[in-house]
Amino acid sequence: GLERGAKNQFSTFSNFITTINQKKEGIGNRNSPTQLVIPNIKNVRDLPPICLDVRQKQRISIDTLPQELKAPVPPDPSLPIRTKTVKDFQDDVEKAKSSGDWKAVHDFYSTTFDSFLEINAAFKKDTNSQFSTIEDSGIDAKFVNVVYDALLNTPQDVQKSVLKGIINGLLQEWKGPRTKDDLRAYCILLQNPQFSNTSTYVIYAHLLRQIAALTEADHHFLVHWSKKISQRRFKQLVDRLLQFISLRLFPAKPEEFPPMVKCTWWIPSATKVLALFNAANSLISPSIISYTDFYNSTLDHIDLMEEYHNWQCYGNSHRFSFCQYPFIISIAAKKVIIQRDSEQQMISIARQSLVDKVSRRQKPDMNMLFLNVKVRRTHLVSDSLDELARKRADLKKKLKVTFVGEAGLDMGGLTKEWFLLLIRQIFHPDYGMFTYHKDSHCHWFSSFKCDNYSEFRLVGALMGLAVYNSITLDIRFPPCCYKKLLSPPIVPCDHNTLVGICDVTLDDLFQIMPELAHGLSELLSYEGNVEEDFYSTFQVFQEEFGVIKSYNLKPNGDKIPVTNQNRKEYVQLYVDFLLNKSIYKQFAAFYYGFHSVCASYALLLLRPEEVEILVCGSPELDMSALQRSTQYEGYQKTDLTIRYFWDVVLAFSLDLQKKLLHFATGSDRVPVGGMADLNFKISKSETSTNWLPVAHTCFNQLCLPPYKNKKELKQKLIIGISNAEGFGLE
Question: What EC numbers are recorded for this enzyme (predicted)?
């Protein structure tokens, strides 16, 4: 393959592509596969502005285009007749391997990749058919895969002939819009495994530039065709693009590439093509690959705030920012952006408070720089509700909590405790705000009507404060909740605009009420007479405080029978009623509470799944990872007490491990960055071994006396972590 061959065999391509703008001759011979002089590339279209502003367009607007575009389709030119089959090609390769004569294989590759017409002649399933639909690209995928799988095991001259042919195809002069044959050729060329090698990146970059410059209608076809690629090959294409972006940002050998100033379009082009694959991935349920497979962790090491500010300042303009394509930014990087954005807002609000105080010639007080919440444990919910309602203007200041009658100083630990206890009380079934569904192990909003929804606003504000102050919460909402929370991601200026309403499906209901969703699914697949056998109407019934109430799903719904013809509409309206309409006031209050704290453009970068991770952290505990990242003060990791400690902890049940984490850090959830982000520390306590362990939750620190044996350590540790509520001062 390419790695085995001398890299300088391909260096000529990098050299002559970079001098394209200096070459003025040789245009007449550009179709020759042996030509090494590359003509002026002025005929390759300049890249248009690559700036899909997520504030206006979250994804490429696939769904806004009709299934079959009505724009005039230019006729495809007649194709050469090529009759080679997959078996013929495989036989040629086997003969070449045994005899050492690669001429037939060389001729096939050099002819096939010499032009877009030849690519279509070889790989189009039927050269006489148009294949102008989004559902069928007309590409013989099996033949393409076989040809590419064999390519890297052919001699270097064969591989060079393919690259020369691709250059010829990219340099042909385009007149008018692209044909479907051109799009097919682009789709096939993108799958070339040679582009994993950095020596081909200059050619790859020009291919990406041309694809990025296509019209939105052409992108529409490429997206729908791409979703038919197999999972393994789809992942390879995505990984190849991510690697291209990473190596252009941080090249291992900078001399391999042209100077960055001369190819500023490389990264925008690759990112826009990656956006096409992301759009294809989102069209299918379940998706082809996980959304996390589009993350580029290399971006964690660039100036993310500069990217964020460029995006905020320039928005939908000619200036590229990765924030225009948030799918490529990892959740860890997004957390950094949100944290720093929150810190800047906190500083700005605190500074304004200080200026206001001084301008009124009043003495500044340090407490004015914080959101100070003072609560009694015995009246936790009511006190918290009163404090947050009274101090609504201070919600964006740094949070500090005081428990009345306790001497603890809040350096972070009391805040964690306050969140934990408040959430525990609010979500208790007796409180009546949320219903716990045992089958799905999650909470959902109670549909009971009430006069005051302020407590739902409090829960929303709590979630917002948690994200704003980088606290993880043990809340079990279904994914649908976070989808609704981002509908829309920015609070609309018009207060009459509905909020928290999103498109919901039967799949969303399955995540909350699986038994009911299964029943509705059975209704959809029922083969008998729905009207006669079910005898249902477009009406639902709910019990509220012992009284059965009925609601019409549509006007006069109680008089409209559910039939085989309208059952899909009935199911959709039923799901929409349960997840949107019946809880609208509750969720709207929750929505406004959350956004009263987290009003930030950074939310536009997040997927619903990512909001859930930011709010709840990860429930997966890896105590071995915690052991590897733990720091020690007064102890060495080889000390007997430390070895006893980890032997005991690793043998704990999951429940006891969660209690330990809560005892030492104030939360039993793992932050976005994993256990390493906890900065967990074990310090030596010089107290008597009769004492229990002590924790400083503000600093994620466990103070451990030097217990003499494992049994004593285990006994004292279990007592300590099982009775851990309340704070004091040493």
Answer: 2.3.2.26
SS (H, E, C) 445-510: ECCCCCCCCHHHHHHHHHHHHHHHCCCCCCCCCCHHHHHHHCCCCCCCCCCCCCCCCCCCCHHHHH
Phi and psi at residue 216, to the nearest 5°: -65, -35
Q: What is the pLDDT of residue 678?
A: 80
Collapsing DSSP to helix, strand or coil, 371 comes out as strand
* Residues 559-615: tens digit of each pLDDT: 999 999 999 999 999 999 999 999 999 999 999 999 988 888 888 899 999 998 888
Contact 597, 461 (CB under 8 A): yes
Q: What is the C-alpha to C-alpha distance for residues 443 and 478, in angstroms, rounded to an integer?
A: 7
The model's pLDDT over 173-216, given as tens digits with 9 standing for 90+, comes to 677 788 888 999 999 999 999 999 999 999 999 999 999 999 99
From residue 36, give the alpha-carbon distance in Å to each of 23, 163, 431: 12, 11, 77
Q: CA–CA distance from 14 to each of 17, 38, 442, 443 (Å)?
A: 5, 11, 56, 58
pLDDT in tens, 252-266: 888 888 888 888 999
Tell which residue, 389, 385, 584, 589, has the closest CA to residue 504: 584
Distance of CA 548 to the CA centre of its chain: 42
Can you tell me which residue has the tokens 């001369």?
Answer: 262
d(CA 162, CA 192): 10
Q: Is 568 exposed, middle or buried (0-12, 13-18, 19+ CB in 10 A)?
A: exposed
Q: Which of 1-15, 225-239, 480-494, 542-556 has the lowest mean pLDDT?
A: 1-15
C-alpha distances in angstroms, 163 versus 18, 90, 181, 573, 619? 15, 21, 20, 55, 49
144 strand-pairing partners = none
Could you tell me whether strands 442-445 and 434-437 are parallel, antiparallel, or unpaired per DSSP bridges?
antiparallel
Find out whether 632 and 701 touch, Cβ atoms under 8 Å: no
**What average pLDDT does the chain have?**
83
The token pair at 402 is 């005081």
Distance, CA of 425 to CA of 377 (rounded, Å) = 11
Q: Tell me, what amino acid is at 68?
A: E
Q: Catalytic positions, please?
A: 698
At position 412, the amino acid (one-letter code) is: G
* Lookup result for tokens 């799905």: 440
* Residue 500, number of CB atoms within 10 A of its CB: 24
Q: Distances in Å between the alpha carbon of 506 and those of 38, 114, 530? A: 56, 50, 19
DSSP 35-86: ------GGGSPPPPP----TTT-SS--GGGS-SS--SPPPPPPPPPP----H
Q: Give the neighbor-by-neighbor strand order of the sheet with 631-633.
A: 631-633, 681-684, 701-704, 694-696
Q: Which domains does the chain have, with CATH numbers?
A: 86-294 (no CATH), 339-491 (3.90.1750.10), 617-723 (3.30.2410.10)
Angle at 489 between CA 488 and CA 494, to 5 degrees: 50
